[in-house]
Predict the 3D structure of the following.
Amino acid sequence: MQILPPKNTIQKRSYEHLPRAPFVAWEKLEPKLKAEWKPGDHVTLIGPTGSGKTHMALALAKICKYSLVIATKRRDPLLESLIDKHVVVSDPKQMEDMAKTIDGTPVNNRLMFWPRFSNKVSNEDRIKLQAEYIRFVLDWAEKSENWAIVCDELMWVSRNLRLERELEAVWFQGRTQGISLIGAAQRPTHVPRLAYSQATYFFVWQTGDRQDLERLRDISAGFPRGMIDKGVVELNWAKHECLFVDTKKREICKTIGPAKL
């Protein structure tokens, strides 16, 4: 893993002479994350459809003691394949029952909230109901303790459901309750800036879009201008490589997500 030198020395380097991010296999990176992860650490994953970001988000959720997956699509083969490993909740009023505790320990530590609606419900009403339900669940989780919330569609939840404030509450105030947000989106420009300024860890897949690269510079980790750009552009898309950024330790490397969950 590349540990950056003091800031006053790296500023003198040109873009062309910035070091390349080393490759670290997931089998080595996962134990590091498991050992260093603290409730309240946030993760942002950025990558196009098919890059493997959802797979990675779920792998990260397994590291956490308690995880809550929020599903927003009508169908999702990956999440459907994991239903038997989660307690699935479709009505927000069931959340408290599903997460009852014994001596402070949740009975169920793997929850999946997946509201389902009849095909007779109009798309407009479906969006309103989905927003209402997910708002309730985010509020419930933010008031609870030590849950890692997996939100695979940050853009949909933020823009279409208009729940940016609720997400901001988790990013800002969730840390004190040990609430982590593992959020994924297709492009850096599609999510609130807090997804970068509040994140502890990043996983970014390849992009050459100028606007995307500019937004990635919002990562507040003291990296020199060009370091993230260089790492992202050099990723091997065919191998599903992604760039991992640890903002706490100012470390950066390339990796590939686990083959199986």
Remarks:
- The longest helix spans residues 123-143.
